[in-house]
Amino acid sequence: MYNNPCEKYTIELAILYLPRSSFHIPLSNGYILCTNYYASWSMPYTQKINIKYIDNDTGAMINLPGLYCEKGLIISHLRYLALHQHKSESWKERSLFSLGLLLTYINSVKSFDKATELLRSFSNALVTGTINFETLNDPLDLYWKARNIADANNILYHITKYTDYLASQDGYESSRVNPFRKASCYEERLNWCAYYQKQANVFLNHLYKKNNVYIENQRVREINGIIAPKVDQEKAIKFPDSEIEKFLQVGFVKKGQQDYKLIAMTMLMNFGGLRKSELFHLFVSDITLNPNRESEALVRVYHPEYGRSPDPKFDNRATYLMSTTRYLPRTKYRLSERLYSGWKGPLLTSRSNFFEVIFNPAEKAEEFLKVWVNYLKYQRVEPSEGDPHPFAFTNSRGAPETLKNFQRKHKLAVEKIGLECRKELGTTEHGHRHAYGYRCRKAGLSQIEIQRAMHHKSPMSCLVYTCPTSEEIRIELGKTE
User: Which GO MF terms does the UniProt record name (predicted)?
Assistant: First the structure.
């Protein structure tokens, strides 16, 4: 299973996440003994393992999640993930999770002759679950609860993408698990509706070849996802404006002193509109004095890999980090590693691959600068000489601050002022960005201006902030009575 002379990639090391276990991976030049220590997610029949995957052509090593079952390591999925190595870690993990569910289901049923019928049965099991609630038994011994439609459709999407990749390999073109069929009139209309909605927001859409579109819209997958109920811009719950000042002044107090680091991080979210993940890509050099308003801060958020390096000797931030420190861009860590921080692909506004934070209200730029200076002067723990790094926010040992630790301290601060930390109440970290968006709308900014302020790639993304809520409509109607 492992020694295939046609393989482009070889496996250097795999760590099986089972307590006190080990196994061998045979290679062309011998084998490697792999031992392990921690358990990750697991399902009957499959286990997730960590893989260091090496490209024989370039020698580049890629950290990938792998799937291990009784037949061995699933090499084809590793090659599939390697092909999509620039996808987010959450995308890779979701693909692996989806395949693990399918393999577990296959191991339980063992009775389908056609792969397409098996996939249809699997898709139904995701939506309905496998439990017979009359007898409280499960003939498959899976005991799956019903998943929501969006979750089930996402799993089906990942399975379809992977099996399409398998079908694209030489000799397997006719074995597509989820093949295409001719669309009905209704399905073709839906395809055209989806096409026009997508094209309305695609730059240079006039360059698309219309002939190909006609062909594509006349076919659908044999197994389609379920059409979910339409939700028209569900209200985004924001952090309560009436509590933000108390939250900053009282919530982040430790041993009688204000925690300037946590205050600065929260201000960047609530008054600067940053996502929580973006905080952990900031370097100290990214926060400076505004040359046009010296009493205000200028904050630039660079792409974690391709952003301009603070040292001109290096082409970008990835090269700078790997050349001068032991750290990687934080998007390059595995999702399970503490230094990982995501990147949602915001709209960048400079060829140096950054965007600038626009404070709202504007006077908060001056207030933030004072907090930032106090943090640097009195509280920031500098990295040790043996472990240097440029990241703006550090922990008590001088190492880069982590998302998990920030979330924990944010939750404690919310509870300290008597609130409950829940997404439905807007009191999680992302509620601050929602508060920023609503504040932009209240300030009278147009849809395009809100898009730029919040760094969305599409102007449609900010509709959740520009559309009036049900309560606001009731208030306006009440004014006419």
Answer: DNA binding
